[in-house]
Structure formats: structure tokens, C-alpha cells
Amino acid sequence: MDEHIVKSYDEELKQLVRRICEMGGQAERMVEQAVSALIHSDLSLAQSVVAEDVILDAAQRDLEERAIVTLAKRQPMALDLREVVGAIRISNDLERIGDLGKNIAKRVIAVHDYSYPVQLSRGIEHLSELALDQLKEVLDAYAERDHKRAEAIRVNDELIDSMYTSIFRELLTYMMEDPRNITACTHLLFSAKNIERIGDHATNIAETIYYIKTGSTLDNERPKDDRTTSVTVAPDADRPATSF
């Protein structure tokens, strides 16, 4: 970030960056803890995640207010303007990631009294690892203003979509094999979708980084590999094939 003659202006811009980094760390922690609570049926940890969302919401509002003051007072242009606008965009994505982590945590109570195959837990855990790796990578790219790295992150989002499709198919299979699995699997399905959406928000952040650094948007279509609309569950002897 270039230095300005007015040092207080530099400090305002640096403060926005610091707040984004703090929010990013908090959003990562919330998602990690929410998934851990889901996998291990840890009600206390889930409640902690839900409570922490209020703090992240407040941080987002604080950043937005600071950014508006900077816009009004400094009337930034070019790169400085993109920095401020980009910070507002990224804070919104991080706030939504926190909301998605909170939503996962709320599912812990719903599935606490149900048993489900361990491989389903492992699939969701793996999906969350992919999404969190994506989030960590994009926050590093933001800290370094590395638009090429951000562009590569955007391409990798289809790996998360592909894994989500696989989990979606597996959960539907378990629900159709035994109606007693429907409640638990439905909540797991919503949790998996929340994790997939976290990957989407990380991709949004990558696109914003590219915009901040270059002043232009990525015009090629975002890669997607979510094929859940065409998933077909294999039939058993007494049931016809079903497409979704």
C-alpha cells in the first residue's frame, strides 16, 4: 500500500486492513469449531460458535462505518478507492461466512440424538477442510495483494463443488435406504450446503482482491462443478431410479 502525505490517512487504510484480517481469523475459527462440534456432538462448543457470531456481526458494522467515514472525509480515488470499497465487500463475505458457521453449529443440537454412518462425518469433515484451506489461502492473498494467487483460488472452487455433489448423493442414498436416517441426513445435507457456500464466499473475496489490485473484474465465467440437480440415486430391486 502506497504511503500518503497525510499520515492519518495511511492509518485509516491500514486499520481497515487490520480489521479484515481480524474478521478473517474469527470466521475461520467459527467454521472450524462448528464442524468439530457437528462431528463430535459437542453441544457446548456449538453454543460458543452461535454466541461468537454476534461479535463478528459487530466487527462488520464497525468496519463499514469506518470505511464510510474514510470515503466521506478523504474522497479517495483509483487504488485507494478500490481498497476501501474492497474492504466493505470482503467484510460482508466474512460476516456471511460467520453466519454459515453459526448455521452449522445450530444443526448440532438437531442431530445430537441421532446416529449416522461415520463415513458421512468424514465426508463433511473433508469438505470443510477444502473450504477452510480456500479461505485461509484467500486471506493470505488479500494480505499480500496477490491477484494472481486470488485468480488461482477462484479456479479451485470447483473441487469443493465436486465434493459437495458426492456428499449430496451419499446422503440421499442413506435417506432412501432407511427412512429413520431422514432427519439426521437432512441436517447433514444443510450443513454440507453451508460449507459449500463458504467456498463460494471465499471465491467472492478472491474476485474482490483481483479488482482491488487491477481495477478490473474477472470476466471469464466462474468454474462450477455442483451437479446436484442431476444426481440419480441407484435403485434397489423394489424401487425405480430417482433423479433430483
Describe how the helices and strands are arranged.
Layout: H1 7-40, H2 43-74, H3 78-111, H4 118-144, H5 147-177, H6 182-214, E1 232-233, E2 242-243
Antiparallel strand pairs: 1-2
Structure report:
78% of the residues lie in helices and 2% in strands. By secondary structure, the protein is mainly alpha-helical. The chain has a single domain (7-243), classed as Methane Monooxygenase Hydroxylase, Chain G, domain 1 (Up-down Bundle). Strands 1-2 form a two-stranded antiparallel ribbon. β1 (232-233) and β2 form a beta hairpin. α1 (7-40) packs parallel to α3, α4 packs antiparallel against α5 (147-177) and α4 runs parallel beside α6.
Strand order of the largest sheet: 1-2
What is the total tally of β strands? 2
Low-confidence stretches: 237-244
Order of helix and strand elements from N to C terminus: HHHHHHEE
What is the fold named in CATH at topology level? Methane Monooxygenase Hydroxylase, Chain G, domain 1
CATH superfamily placement: Phosphate transport system protein phou homolog 2, domain 2
The helix content, as a percent range, equals over 70%
Question: How many helices?
Answer: 6
How many domain modules? 1
Radius of gyration based on Cα positions: 20 Å
| Alpha-carbon distance between the two ends | 49 Å
Strand content: under 5%
If you average the pLDDT, what whole number results?
88
> Based on helices, strands and strand pairing, what is the structural class?
mainly alpha
* CATH architecture annotation name: Up-down Bundle
Report on the biggest sheet.
2 strands, antiparallel
- Overall shape: it is globular
CATH class bucket: Mainly Alpha
